[in-house]
What does this fold into?
Amino acid sequence: MNRTLSLMAITSCLAAAPVFAAQRSAPEAVPAHAPRSAQVVALVNGIELTERDLRNEMQELFPFYQVHGGRVPAKAEPEIRSKALDRLVLTELLFQEAKRRKLQVSPLAVVARMDKLRKQFRTRSEFDRAVAAQFGSEAEFQKKVLRALMVEKLWDQEVVRPSRVSEADARSHYSQNRDHYVRPESVRLQTISFQFPEKATPAERNLARTRAEEILPQAKAAQTPQAFGALAERFSTDDWRVMNGDHGWVHRGTLEPELEIAFRMKPGETSGIITSRDGFHILRVSDYRKQDQLSYTEVREKVRKSLEEERLKQRREKLEQALRRTAKIETP
It folds into this structure.
């Protein structure tokens, strides 16, 4: 399988940052009968973005690109192509802004990034083939690496660093939103279920009920989660049987209304037969937790991450809107 080169260092930030894929930074002469890879897909302040650039961006958006032989599935292509073009345009705008600000990237940083990318390949020849396929030449590849680093530098200045959350910020948010950080009342629940079809006949419902009645004495006699789980695995007709009927910790309000009776049961208690819209059920509650206030220590990382994601989103939108407001963007 052929491998591809991704120039982006912050690949984990797809939701908050563009993928810095290969793009043109200056117009080039295109022959009258240009190959498809050289066809212009957009002009950004007069700078041409080509089909090759767009295809490279689509690879970033569609992780199984190579598995599909270098093609995006036909049904998904319009959506992926549209999103890739949006990000391609945004990255060009970021690059132009980085140039306007005269942001500098050292030659050593470019060499280091190129070396890092080379190490992703088993052999030099494999790397050279990827460079030729995606960028045409190593010189062009080097330009794209420089370009990516300039965009990353701007992104770090305008989006990443201003979005960082201090300890004081996180503590303040927690103090003002304590009611958002509670552990809900919950039970550790197992079930044995006997389902019937949505439009079940009386005979089908009776059959399911009979099976539940036959198993109920054994379920009542099961003294441990393991014993009850063995019955669920053997007799239950829903998908939970593969988990020994174990739903894990279930929060109040998340079950079907008929099954909320579990919150009136004691740990170790087994219910009678409960009827729901899709079957008959036997419940076993093995443990119970009341609603608790989570401490700051318990949710510190969650608070910090949530605040940072929101700030990243806001900073990204603000920067993108500012760049697009004054840009001339044309799509042939």
About this structure: The longest strand covers residues 279-289. The two ends are 34 Å apart (CA to CA). The chain has two domains: 11-165+310-330, 184-292. The mean pLDDT is 88.
